[in-house]
Specification:
Elements: H1 3-9, H2 14-29, H3 39-54, H4 60-64, E1 65-73, H5 75-79, H6 89-96, E2 104-108, E3 111-118, E4 121-131, E5 134-141, H7 144-149, E6 152-154
Parallel strand pairs: 1-5
Antiparallel strand pairs: 2-3, 2-6, 3-4, 4-5
Length: 157
Amino acid sequence: MPSEEIAPIVDRSPAAARKLASRARRRVQGADPPSGAGLPRQREIVAAFLAASRGGGFAALPALLDPDVVLHSDRAAVLTGASVRPRGASAVAGTFRGRAQGARPALIDGGAGAVWPAGGQPRMAFDFTITAGRITGINLIADPGHLRELRLEVIED
């Protein structure tokens, strides 16, 4: 089934649905999480995104984002004040301007991402989809049950 048809069923963007399907296939096949090729570059892109969103480099935010980027926030993230589903580089960049102060770089199921910890526990995960050097999707995950299912590893700066 195409990702475009699955996406509304699982309340995700097509890019996020593709990523979920890819992760599921790897798990079923017993493959290791993605690493090696592309991960260092993905980590650079996420680090640049976090630095720009924290302040001082706001003009750099849209350049890191694909023109058709989609931000998806789960219900728990929306309850914390996250935007529901902005689309496009300008809208997504505006959502993050000055708002990722507490976010820390992390590996999420082996891929580059970020977490927002509070009280020593991850309260929100920023799961990035990066294609051809640009962020094409960001999933904000704050549901405690979903967070427990993720393999999260905070990367110390």
